[in-house]
Amino acid sequence: AYTNAREKILNRLLKKHISSSPGYYIQTRIYTAARIWFTGINKEELQKASFMGKLKLLYPFLVTFTCIFGGLITVLILIFKRILSWKIYWPLFLLIGYFGLIHIPFAIQARYTVPVHMFILFLLSAGIATLAVDKTVKA
After folding, report:
1. What is the pLDDT of residues 15-46, one digit of tens each?
2. Coil, helix or strand for 21?
3. Which candidate, 115, 86, 87, 120, places its Cα nearest to that of 102?
4. Model pTM?
5. What residues contact residue 51 under an 8 Å CB cut-off, 6+ apart?
6. Which helix (H) or strand (E) holds 51?
7. 138 or 131: which carries more pLDDT confidence?
8. C-alpha torsion sign, points 24, 36, 124, 64
């Protein structure tokens, strides 16, 4: 009963907050849509950290930003350029899309999309391989 009452109150407050500033809410959801694909950096910890500490903090960000977020953007481009086939990879596209969309309403947690990181990397590899084969065949 407590949980249901709390959820009703939070839902009412959320709707009130969204209606008072819909533009801001939409901006935060757009930011969240991108941000859930890479690990963030705590600014306070980064400022206090030694050189090696800074490297340890930057490493997860750099890896997830370049490989996962960058890979996702590249996969989207490869889909639109028809280098990756929807007919072949549609289950992976749907899973990645689902994981991305379902978490947009929530607070930012990059760990929510970790289960589909391997699919992004697989599709990125398939796209690169397709491009390499196309160039080899044309040459």
Report:
1. 999 999 999 999 999 999 888 999 888 899 99
2. coil
3. 115
4. 0.80
5. none
6. helix 51-63
7. 131
8. positive
Structure tokens, 112: 């929510």
> Residue 15 corresponds to which tokens in the numbers above?
């709707």
Rounded Cα–Cα distance for residues 72 and 75 (Å): 5
Position 130 confidence tier, pLDDT thresholds 50, 70, 90? very high
pLDDT of 108 over the 90 cut: no
Residues with Cβ within 8 Å of residue 79, at least 6 apart in sequence: 86, 93
Nearest to 74 by CA among 64, 84, 85: 84
pLDDT for residue 139: 62
User: Which structure tokens are listed for 30?
Assistant: 């757009």
Q: Which residues are CB-neighbours of 117 under 8 A, at least 6 positions away?
A: 64, 68
